[in-house]
Design goal:
The structure is a homodimer.
Chain A lengths: L4 H8 L3 H9 L7 E2 L5 E2 L2 H15 L4 H9 L6 H37 L2 H8 L4 H12 L2 H13 L2 H23 L7 H17 L5 H13 L1 H10 L3 H16 L1
Antiparallel strand pairs in A: 1-2
The structure holds a DNA duplex.
DNA sequence: CTCCCGCCTCCCGTTGCGTGAGGGTCAAGC
DNA sequence: GCTTGACCCTCACGCAACGGGAGGCGGGAG
């Protein structure tokens, strides 16, 4: 079967101009022309176009698609497998984004439940939005996320205050330990790191050692988190980071 | 907290150039500048950037994003909801594509199982690849798809021959009916349309009346399908289309 | 005080088409 | 056989969304 540009364009949901463009750059040249110079596409052309559109959907530049498609002998199976992988990967990414959006909505809901003063009371000067937005970009979605949003959504004001209290208690102890001169890889520091991990697990989500070290690195890498800890005590961010790593290694 | 372009760029996974661009077109202007002219972004800027990136991910042009973001009083909840919807929609689309790819792979596997002669024997001159590719674009994925690929993957050569025989038998009966001059909305024609639907349901996937009429329209709209039926008997494509519609209406 | 990295502002280049302009073609109907 | 409308052709310019480099200032660590 042979098709005109228009037919192909409608079937593949692209514009005629796009097909002209693909022809111009040699990405998809119709297998023939009529006497009047009309482009004639056959089934092989359609198949190729299908692959092109799929790669495009995944964000590949046209040049690269040309390389990919013109590379092997002609077996499409590897392409299909590859696209399958890429697509599922993409879906995962989008799912993470959805989870992130859900969290942000959850945070907004909290803002509505809690008056600004209450909010300040609970979170100190560590803006929850900030936290949410950040966390969201970091581990975007994931299971931990779902858990966190689910639990957080049910917390009452009293829960928040209890959480804050536990948090402050822990903060006092680690600053004291640090002031005492105990090294960050001392058993005491590691114990407090472990306690930190369990605090997170209890209040927000199952915090594995891996996630915990990831968090620790973030405390150093991101100025907002660094600022939060540095304000409690200068050097605390680095100290906690080291303690968490030491603790994780010792438990491995 | 205030951030430099570089920090923002790293956090948001965009280039500095992109931020410059957003500043140029007024989509995201930093809340301030230092004495030396350095851009200074604050948390509100980051929040806005997050929304921008999400909309971009969904394919919105920058201009439109600007309109969307600058439109309401400033409540982000509607945006979040909207993005949530759009993202889940997008995921659905990608899932369809994945299913389509899976079907194409399935077809390739069949090509390997069946020699070219066997393939020809089974499918007549109606290339299964062609069918696969087409079907895939039409109802891309969906539940019907999964079913179809799953069943088709298990068919033996004998199954295919039985299928072909049933199909040909049906073909003979509808051509005969058409030759007899019975109108396409006659009870007999509708009965054959219904039989057609059940043939599909038995061999491939649950074919609802809705899907069936969709198929019918495709038989007319697409030259490849039209050709298939026209070759059996001129006018058959249109006749079958009408019969299927009549049948679907009468059962509704 | 220096060195290097990060920031600044032009400014031209690229990708992937959109959108006519100007003109031939083809099937259908009168 | 002629018109008409839909469809095709080839330029050719335009645009969005940055990429990437040139040329130069700023700033903090050693």
């Amino acid at each position: 079967m042979a098709y005109t540009v228009g037919q192909v364009a409608r079937a593949a949901r692209v514009t005629v101009r796009t097909l002209h463009h693909y022809d111009e750059i040699g990405l998809l040249s119709p297998s023939g022309r009529t006497a009047a110079g009309y482009r004639r596409y056959d089934d092989a052309d359609l198949e190729r176009l299908q692959l092109i559109r799929a790669y495009r959907e995944l964000g590949f530049p046209l040049e690269e698609i040309a390389e990919i498609l013109d590379d092997p002998g002609g077996d499409p199976l590897p392409h299909l497998r590859r696209q399958h992988e890429l697509l599922t990967g993409r879906i995962g990414k989008l799912r993470d984004m959805v989870a992130a959006i859900e969290l942000a909505m959850e945070a907004r809901k909290l803002d509505i439940q809690l008056t600004p003063e209450e909010r300040f009371e609970v979170f100190g000067d560590f803006d929850p939005d900030e936290h949410a937005e950040e966390a969201e970009r970091r581990w975007g979605g994931s299971e931990a996320y779902r858990q966190s949003t689910e639990r957080v959504g049910r917390y009452s004001k009293e829960d928040w205050l209890r959480n804050k209290a536990e948090n402050e208690e822990w903060g006092r102890r680690i600053t004291a330990l640090m002031a005492s001169g105990a090294p960050a890889d001392s058993p005491e520091a590691m114990a407090l790191a472990e306690e930190h991990r369990q605090l997170i697990s209890r209040w927000f989500y199952d915090c594995s050692y891996e996630i915990h070290t990831g968090l620790a690195d973030m405390y150093l890498a991101d100025p907002r988190f660094t600022a939060y800890f540095e304000k409690i005590r200068p050097g605390l961010a680095a100290y906690l980071n080291e303690a968490i790593h030491a603790n994780a290694i010792s438990r491995a």
